[in-house]
Amino acid sequence: MFVTKRIQFKLAGLAAAMAMGIAASATAFATDITGAGATFPYAVYTKWAEAYKGATGSQVNYQGIGSSGGIKQIKAKTVDFGGTDAPLSESELDGAGLVQVPTVMGGVTIVYNLPGFKSGQVKLDGATAAEIFRGAITKWNDAAIARLNPGVKLPDTAITIAHRSDGSGTTHVFTHYLAKQSVAFMRDVGADKVGKWPNNSVGGKGNPGVAANVQKIAGAIGYVDIADAMKNGMNFVALKNKAGNYIVPNQDAVADAAGGANFKVKGMAPDLLDQSHKNAWPITSATYVLAYEKGADAAKQKGVVEFLTWSLNNGQKMAEELGFVPLPANVVKMVEAEMKNIK
Question: Which residue has the higher pLDDT, 159 or 5?
């Protein structure tokens, strides 16, 4: 009996030691990585990170600090990957030694707070939206807005523009769209990650900051991504697309806008704005991850590739549930091929 207990004790100790060894081994192989940048994909990156940790044990920490911050940090080598909605040019990528790949697609929406009006009940075209956001139209019952909304009694309410106060890829996308519609907008506000906004405007940090300002100010109009607008139950403007149809933003309209895009260009960043499909959402964009082409830490580089590969193949449903549009299957394969340059 004593011998049996002794054997059992030894076996239990051996089992415990093996368990500890396995746990230590798993920990040794788990690679923790950090990223920072665009707030637009924050919800999906954090959701992917949570699921990825459950599947692999590896921790991914992503901070939504804006696209400008993400670009700055990846260039300064303080993070393992950066997030941006404003893709870098071929010369910028080559100069900084970076690889750029898209992760998900979405749309920038025009949201408004006009008591008595719901989503789609106010129509705008690109040229009129540009006049509003450069400060040339300051009342909701302006003749230019009224012409697009015949039979609708628009109030004599002052317009307050809600915009991003931080350097933003969402601003980059939105201002580039409006600059395509209006030379005057390009002159007065510009097309960049930070705009020169008019006096009747208020800034907010991140997409959540803009959403909060629109929600609390009667008469406000602003721009946020579809996911944030959906999450906050916001009202969308119906925007006239290139085909002449008024569209309320949705995932199908984003997918239709991206359907014919050529992602084979350097940096995998085709222009998705103002596409001609009859159902296309005019302000469609992808969001991107930036990683070092040659990083100092091989394990971290491998960790970035493994996280993105896992997410693109296992996280599509999560992205859709959050209001994003997954990359087409052929584009996912192109991304995987491009990530071979991350070494």
Answer: 159
